[in-house]
Amino acid sequence: MSTAMNFGSKSFKPRAPDKGSFPLDHFGECKAFKETFMKCLRDNNFDNSKCRLQSKDYLQCRMDNQLMTKEPLEKLGFKDLIDPPPSQAGGDTKP
Q1: Would you say residue 93 has pLDDT above 70?
Q2: What pLDDT is recorded for position 14?
Q3: Is the pLDDT of residue 88 over 60?
Q4: C-alpha angle 8/12/14, rounded to 5°?
Q5: DSSP secondary structure letter of residue 54
Q6: 44-53 CB contacts, 8 Å cutoff, 24+ apart
């Protein structure tokens, strides 16, 4: 009994991953944001929960410079760090 390997029947079509891979910042457009984030991580014993604001700023820079696909920050887990619209910001509206 032999097993025939027929590689011609299906062709492999590579495609980019949906998330998790994005271009390098060759021109250093977001280097300052990255350095701030990395310093925060080092200062906080690499506890990324203490550096969420720096992480958000870094990802926002990458999106602004087309280094990653634009995504709503809420979808990236930063809903609590986004400023509410001005109509909801005050809460106390006395005439």
Answers
A1: no
A2: 63
A3: no
A4: 160
A5: H
A6: 52/78, 52/81, 53/81
